[in-house]
Every structure is written in C-alpha cells, then in structure tokens.
Design goal:
By secondary structure, the protein is an alpha/beta fold. It is built from 12 helices and 12 strands. A hairpin with a 4-residue loop joins strand 1 and strand 2. The chain is elongated.
C-alpha cells in the first residue's frame, strides 16, 4: 500500500475526534469547514476505511477511527517535537553571539550569567566585548556586536533601546567608618571622603547630581576608573564609594560593607541593538538571565 498521509490530514482527523464537531474543529484549526471535510475524505481514502460515523446530529469515531486515533496523535506529537528541536538547533546549535557590556557589568554580572546561559545552551559560542558606552554604541551602529548592555544615557538615531531593569545605588565602606548604619542619607554620604569614578561614568553623574540637589560638596579623595580599584581603596580605608546594587558580588571579595542610601537613586540599564534588527532567541535568553542579577538589592 502506497500511503501519502500528511500532517494537515492527521491534524484534521484529531481535531474532529476531539470535538466531535466539524464546525468547531475547523474553527480550532483556523481552516474552512470545506477544507477540513476534504482532508478527512482524503485521509479515509488513503486508509481505505471510514474513520467517522456522521449523522445530522452527531459525529462519532468508528472502531477503525478509535484504533487510529492514538497512532495519529503519536505521529503528530513526534513531528511537532522534532520540528521544535530542529528550530531550537537552528537558533542555538550553530549560533555565534558577540555581545557588548560596559566594564562594570562585564566584571560583576556577566560571568555568572554566561555560566548559566552556557549550561542551558552549550552549543552557542559567545564572544564578550567590554567597552565604554560610546564605544559600544559605535559597535552596534557598525553591526559589530549583536547587542550591547549598559547604562546608555543618550539615545542615538539608528539604535533601538530596550530598558531592562533599574539598579539602585548603594554605599560601600569599611568598619573604619563605624558611625555608618545600614541606611544613610545622601547628605551624610558626602560627609565622608569619596573614592569617585570618572565624570564620564553614568554612576558618577548621578552621584554628582545628588550632591548638587542636596547643596553639598563632594569630598573627593581620588578618582578611579575601575570598580576593583575603588573597592581596593575602600578596603584600605581611603574613603567610601557609591556603586550599583549588583556590585554586591564583587564586594564579597573585599573586607567591605554596604549600606542603602536614601532617597533611593536608580540607574537604568538598557539593551541596545541596531534599529530594524530583530533580537534572536539567544539574545532574548541572555537578556532574561541578566534581569534578576541587575535587580538585586
């Protein structure tokens, strides 16, 4: 017997078997009732037997139909599972991702996120580019990275911005400043010598803005560019520092403490991509894994 069954026929048969109604099955499958009836006739012709007993009031499976139903269901389930696996392979099996991150994200959040991502999708090759916001924006414009993540202040034509999640600023200090409690006001923060970041840093811009808002001067002890440099200086008692809440992991490597600062100040983190470029499933997966890490407080 030369069978030529297809997925359309099998789905039509299962749809009618489940609903016992041609009209409802056609609606469920988003096809016309005529097309549904044609598929059933074709299938019955291929199998050389009737699958349904039809009356003006009801539609019921014949003994042959009841015997064929589990077979048809298994075939459809297996085909759909295989299709999903092939699509998954197309998305991840031979993928190569080039992702950009600002340095603070790259050193504090990305390693753990990528570790989890590689466990879920071991076949994806991920290349990380760590650079400042302006450099990453240029990379995105030139399509040299698939996506970039960071605190991008300025929106540039030709680049799409997706806000991921805000992180809250916190104070980092040592026991040398024993009068600092678990929560401290911004005005109090500026009473201590500050290990500041470069004025180009979005974080430092927020800190400078709070100093201006509270009408206080910043007692800047020194200016550094890297988180680990600042944490090392804080650990040795040279001053205090302000960082996003996701830097808690980095703080654990040093003998330092953290305190919340009020009123809370958030820094927004974005995913940027070249306009008109759709995010791949892999990029979306990385984005979803980043969110809880950035949202920690």
């Amino acid at each position: 017997m030369n069978l030529n069954l297809n997925l359309r026929q099998l789905k039509a048969f299962i749809g009618v078997a489940e609903t016992c109604n041609f009209t409802k099955a056609a609606q469920k499958l988003h096809i016309s009732q005529a097309a549904l009836s044609s598929s059933i006739r074709e299938l019955e012709g291929q199998l050389s037997c009737r699958l349904f007993e039809r009356t003006t009031r009801s539609v019921e499976l014949t003994p042959a139909g009841r015997e064929f139903l589990p077979v048809a269901t298994t075939v459809v389930d297996n085909l759909e599972a295989a299709t999903h696996q092939l699509q998954h392979f197309g998305q991840y099996g031979i993928s190569r991702l080039r992702l950009g991150f600002t340095p603070m994200l790259a050193s504090n959040v990305v390693p753990e996120v990528l570790d989890e991502f590689q466990r879920q999708f071991p076949s994806v090759q991920v290349e990380v580019v760590d650079a400042g916001p302006k450099e990453l924006q240029q990379f995105v414009e030139l399509d040299e990275v698939d996506a970039a993540f960071g605190a991008f202040e300025q929106k540039i034509s030709g680049i799409s911005h997706l806000q991921i999640v805000p992180a809250t600023l916190m104070l980092v200090y040592t026991d040398q400043f024993s009068d600092i409690q678990e929560s401290i006001s911004w005005r109090q923060v500026f009473e201590y010598p500050l290990i500041a970041l470069s004025d180009k840093s979005p974080i430092q811009k927020l800190v400078n803005g709070m100093a201006k808002k509270t009408g206080t001067d910043i007692r800047s002890r020194m200016v550094v560019n890297q988180l680990d440099t600042a944490l090392g200086m804080v650990e040795k008692g040279f001053g205090v520092a302000v960082f996003p809440s996701f830097a808690q992991t980095a703080c654990q490597r040093y003998k330092v403490r953290t305190a919340s600062v009020f009123p809370p100040v958030s820094i927004n983190y974005f995913r940027i991509m070249k306009s008109g470029k759709d995010a791949s499933a892999a990029v979306d997966a990385i984005t979803e894994l980043l969110i809880p890490s950035l949202h920690c407080s």
